[in-house]
Design goal:
The protein has 896 residues and is mainly β. Helices cover 1% and strands 50% of the residues.
Length: 896
């Protein structure tokens, strides 16, 4: 079990909850049931049939004879059980106990005693007292007369609650009385707690009348309170005869005005505005209680209802009194104060200049146009009725009722004021604007400032040039533009119009008249005219450029100068002399339209030779032509030219080549080929001579696919043999075009002769042997070079051979041969066959089978192992078998 909660109204008294049984009681049990097991499963008891039959729980008094109505048990959810019942008045004041078991479904078959012994936590008991507060008194009022002729006091009268009910029987009545003084406030005078027997009318049945001895005779301005004190310590609600004292039982009459107050309050008067002075305000009035008589007055005059409605009219204050009177009771009066006023008429606003009649804009402004930004428009605001005043604001700022409006947007609010009435405001939204102005014009090319009549001149470069113009009106405008030439009309969607004037073609001049109609919403349209004369401008002279001081014409290059910053210059390529010098000359020819021409080069007057030509050094120049002619705009033309030197071809020479080169060197299939002595050089040496004096030369070649720079190309560089080397030569010089030349060069060696003769000394054979059984021994076998025998001992006629040291082998027979090589990569082959130890006279050692094998090296390997410039050595790698090995070394005499 978790907790128990009484939803029924209750208090704690004497340590126990005291429940009111005026309505059905409700008790909520909250359990701890995380598994959601179904509860209230006692066999044969559901407690849900709405009868007096108890189920899993029961209500009992001490005597065990408690009877209830509409008992029910409800499982709201697995953790919430709700128990409801109606207790009877017979058990009022008794102690009642709620007891029972949760009876989960998994214990439904248990006997109650067994279940209590096993799971006492499933059982629950709670005791409370049935204690219902007494009922309130009824029909409570203050008398309209005195108690009797002998007791001249006003008194309180009410009906006591039903005395047959235990909750009311033997109740007491606490009565208080208050006196309303002249300040309108109530002051407490005293109270008494009385039994029914202490009333002033002992035989009054259920009516209780009472006055206090302390009351003044003939004084009726008393108010009373009554509270019933129940027999079991609980009390009723305190009632009173005046709202200031608590819950008031005297019901006032109601007054309902059918209109809503819409004027300003006049002290305690609600103000109602009406459209006409004859309009009335209507209302309904109802008595406080049924059976009361009702009297309605307006400013003391009794009103009669028409169709259940009363009406009052007339400007000024009205006091409406509604009196509700019950026989024998003091009258209850309600007063309603109202004021009726006619709503004032709106002000009138007049302006000193009429609106333009072009409608209103999106913000509701009407427009008045003035000639300039300094223009103003007068206004006057007047109130049309007597007894009213008028005030005016312009854009929220107070202004005089008469004044002037500047060029701007004005929201004029004229407000009529009248006492007790809401202000009546009239708003006039006026925009004072300057009338549409002449648009601005922009021409490209621009106006020259020369005019023929009304036509303004524009000079164009040639007959194919167009004049672009832009006409700009005020912001927010649109335009219709008509061009007289071609009768073309354009309507714009914005305030600009950009277009072109048709080119002159073959004409020397032409007239155009542009008519522009400017439009803007809420403005009056305006039309303007612009007249233009198109004239072909003085044309640019031409130049001819020549080589040096001669008459050889130079045409402009198709590419820009190489020097940075001159990409916009016209380039003229000028070949330099071998000595590296050169310049150009130019002559000027005026255009066909005539005019005199003055010439400057780089800002200085250019001197003219007798030939009429002017000199241009290498580099960039600005040639300025000033062309003048009477009546025309002086034209100045700048021509940017660059005289760029062109460099001559370089030459490649051999430093160590033998004789002249063959081939052109222009491709890898026709290279420059030089022979060189491989005995003295490892590669062909070349050098580069610049095409012109003063050139800077850089060169590179390609080695295994990568570019390699040559450090000193003009002093000498090596070219590998047997391959074609591309030599990329780059020549540069200030103010000259870079010249890149590719030449292909190949170096080939002059054929090499390797001579071997074991008897003449031009050749020698040495061996290094190891691993044989006996150190010094005779040997047999053969050693050949490129198939030529260098050693061959068949018999045992070789003197003893030492191991583990170099040993010269010199055949008794003369061994002589020559090997010719054309490339350092040519192969030299040494072969050894049947080389073995000889034992005794012509007897081979049976344990030493012959050693054999071949080793190959290139001519370059021999040169790398040479003992002198003319003695080149073939040092073979070891030729081995088992533990035995031999290293032949052949020395040749080398020559071209």
């Amino acid at each position: 079990m978790g907790k128990l909660d009484f939803s029924t109204e209750h208090v704690s008294m004497g340590g126990l909850p005291n429940l009111s049984a005026r309505n059905a009681i409700e008790i909520n049990l909250y359990t701890i049931n995380p598994k959601g097991i179904k509860l209230l499963c006692k066999p044969g008891a559901d407690g849900t049939n709405g009868t007096n039959e108890f189920g899993n729980f029961r209500l009992q008094n001490d005597d065990g004879n408690l009877e209830v109505d509409n008992y029910s048990e409800t499982l709201v959810d697995p953790t919430h059980i709700r128990i409801r019942a109606n207790l009877r008045d017979d058990s009022e004041g008794q102690k009642i106990t709620l007891s029972g078991c949760l009876w989960p479904e998994n214990r439904a078959e248990f006997a109650e005693a067994d279940l209590k012994a096993q799971s006492p936590e499933l059982f629950y008991s709670q005791t409370f007292i049935q204690n219902t507060p007494p009922d309130n008194v009824k029909n409570m009022y203050v008398s309209d007369g005195l108690f009797s002729s002998s007791v001249e006091k006003c008194y309180l009268s009410f009906e006591v609650p039903n005395q047959s009910l235990k909750r009311n029987l033997d109740s007491k009545y606490e009565i208080g009385y208050y006196l309303r003084e002249s300040d309108g406030k109530l002051y407490f005078k005293g109270s008494e707690t009385l039994t029914l027997d202490q009333r002033r009318n002992p035989s009054g049945g259920n009516v209780f009348q009472y006055y206090f001895d302390g009351q003044d005779d003939d004084l009726t301005s008393y108010e009373y309170t009554v509270q019933v004190l129940g027999p079991h310590g609980r009390n009723s609600e305190k009632l009173s005869t005046d709202p200031a004292l608590g819950v008031c039982v005297l019901v006032e009459p109601t007054v309902t005005i059918e209109q809503t107050p819409n004027g300003l309050f006049d002290e305690s008067y609600e103000c109602y505005e009406v459209e006409s002075a004859s309009d009335s305000i209507t209302f309904t009035a109802t008595p406080g209680q049924e059976g009361d008589t009702l009297t309605v007055k307006d400013n003391g005059a009794v009103l009669t209802a028409t169709g259940g409605h009363y009406s009052v009219s007339g400007s000024g204050r009205h006091t409406i009194e509604v009196v509700s009177k019950k026989v024998g009771a003091r009258a209850v009066t309600v007063t309603k104060k109202i004021r009726i006023e006619k709503t004032p008429d709106a002000a009138e606003i007049e302006f000193g200049k009429a609106f333009n009649g072009c409608g209103t804009d999106a913000s509701g402004f009407e427009y008045i146009e003035v000639a300039s930004l300094a223009g103003t428009v007068s206004y006057t605001a007047t109130a049309p009725e007597e007894g009213t005043t008028v005030s005016v604001t312009d854009n929220g700022t107070a202004v005089l009722a008469s004044g002037s409006l500047s060029v701007a947007s004005h929201t004029l609010v004229a407000t009529v004021h009248k006492d007790f009435c809401n202000d009546v405001a009239v708003t006039k939204k006026v925009k004072v604007v300057r009338e549409l102005q002449k648009p601005t014009y922009s021409f490209n090319p621009g106006l020259t400032g020369t005019k023929t009549g009304d036509f303004e001149w524009i000079e164009v470069a040639d007959g194919s040039s167009f004049v672009t113009y832009t006409i700009t009106a005020e912001s927010g405008c649109t335009m219709t533009v008509h061009n007289s030439y071609g009768n073309k009309t354009t309507n714009t969607s914005g305030n600009t119009n950009t277009d072109t004037l048709v080119s002159l073609s073959t004409s020397s001049s032409r007239d155009y008249t542009l008519t522009i109609t400017v439009k803007k919403p809420c403005y009056t349209d305006k039309s303007f005219t612009k007249k233009i004369k198109l004239i072909k401008a003085l044309q640019e002279p031409t130049i001819r450029v020549y080589k040096n001081d001669g008459n050889d014409l130079i045409s402009p290059s198709t590419s820009a100068p190489e020097e940075s910053g001159y990409s916009a210059y016209t380039c003229y390529d000028m070949p330099l002399t071998t000595s590296g010098t050169g310049h150009a000359n130019f002559e000027v020819t005026a255009a066909a339209d005539g005019g005199s021409v003055s010439v400057k080069v780089d800002g200085a007057n250019a001197s003219t030779y007798s030939s009429g030509k002017r000199k241009l050094e290498l580099g960039g120049h600005t040639i300025t032509f000033t062309v003048t002619k009477t009546g025309y705009k002086t034209q100045e033309y700048n021509k940017k030219v660059y005289v760029q030197g062109t460099l001559s071809e370089p030459t490649i020479e051999s430093v160590n080549g033998i004789g002249s080169a063959t081939g052109s060197g222009n491709s890898n299939t026709d290279p420059l080929v030089w022979k060189f002595s491989y005995i003295n050089y490892d590669s062909l040496k070349c050098k580069i001579t610049a095409g012109n004096t003063g050139n800077t030369v850089k060169a590179s070649t390609t080695v295994t696919g990568s570019s390699v720079s040559l450090s000193k190309p003009t002093e000498g560089f090596g070219v590998g043999y047997d391959t074609v080397a591309p030599i990329i030569i780059v020549q540069t010089k200030a103010k000259c075009k870079t010249k890149t030349t590719t030449k292909y060069v190949k170096g080939v060696i002059k054929p090499i002769k390797l001579t071997f003769n074991n008897h003449s000394g031009t050749g020698r054979l040495d061996v290094y042997m190891s691993g044989f059984k006996k150190n010094k021994f005779d040997m047999k076998g053969k050693i050949c070079v490129n198939g030529n025998i260098a050693f061959s001992y068949i018999e045992s006629n070789c003197d003893g051979v030492n191991q583990n040291q170099w040993q010269n082998l010199n055949d008794s027979d003369e061994r002589s041969f020559t090997i010719t090589c054309s490339s350092p990569s040519d192969d030299i082959t040494v072969s050894v066959s049947s080389l073995r130890r000889n034992v005794g006279n012509k007897t081979d050692d049976p344990d030493d089978s012959g050693i054999g094998g071949t080793k190959v090296k290139t001519l370059a390997d021999l040169k790398g192992e040479k003992s002198s410039d003319t003695r080149w050595v073939f040092l073979s790698d070891a030729i081995s078998q088992k533990d035995r090995s031999v290293i032949p070394k052949i020395t040749f005499t080398v020559s071209d």
